[in-house]
Specification:
The chain is α+β, with helices and mostly antiparallel strands and 181 residues long. The protein has four helices and six strands.
């Protein structure tokens, strides 16, 4: 009796290797999934829309309840660099500058808030800056102690528009509807 090798044909060896590889792959894949499904994962949060407000959109001011109160997810006292003006129309304006301007950094998760605020501030992104009442721009924001809070949107006005509207510099860098009465 002639002893036949266990696997005499190369095709048999390839088939067995394929089965072993597939089995190992399946086993490995299954256990990796089980392991990672039991590992707690950080909650994914929606991206934040950050807006620096210094006037009627601040908590306690006229436009906060309608435009921000039910949509805001976080509020932080903040400051930035600019120049603050009180306008005779009863609201403020901020221009680019090198003075401290105090306000709040509002955090939103719904990007539609920008559309509503753009309408309130008479800003249309495709219109010329001079044709808008305010224009929206990213600015650097800081904590009261000077630590960076990163960039945030802010509604600014050009110097020419401030002059045209009769703006007066707000010396204390904080605007309030009570102080403009």
């Amino acid at each position: 009796m002639v002893k036949r090798p266990l696997y005499s044909d190369r095709r048999e060896v390839n088939a067995i290797c394929t089965i072993i590889t597939f089995s190992w792959s399946y086993y490995f894949d299954y256990h990796i999934r089980v392991y990672f499904s039991s590992v707690p994962r950080p909650k994914m949060t929606a991206p934040s829309i950050r807006i620096f407000v210094y006037g009627t959109l601040k908590p306690g001011e006229a436009n906060y309840p309608k435009y921000c109160a039910t949509k805001v997810v976080d509020v932080k006292t903040a400051l930035t660099w600019g120049k603050l003006y009180a306008l005779p129309q009863g609201y403020p304006a901020m221009t680019l500058g090198n003075e401290t301007v105090w306000g709040y950094l509002l955090y939103f998760t719904d990007p539609r808030v920008l559309t509503a605020l753009d309408e309130l501030e008479d800003y249309q992104p495709y219109r010329d800056v001079a044709a808008n009442l305010y224009y929206r721009q990213y600015i650097q924001t800081y904590t009261p102690t000077g630590l960076s809070l990163g960039e945030a949107w802010a509604y600014l006005m050009t110097e020419e528009q401030v002059v045209q509207l009769g703006g007066t510099p707000q010396g204390n860098s904080w605007w309030s509807s009570q102080s403009s009465i």
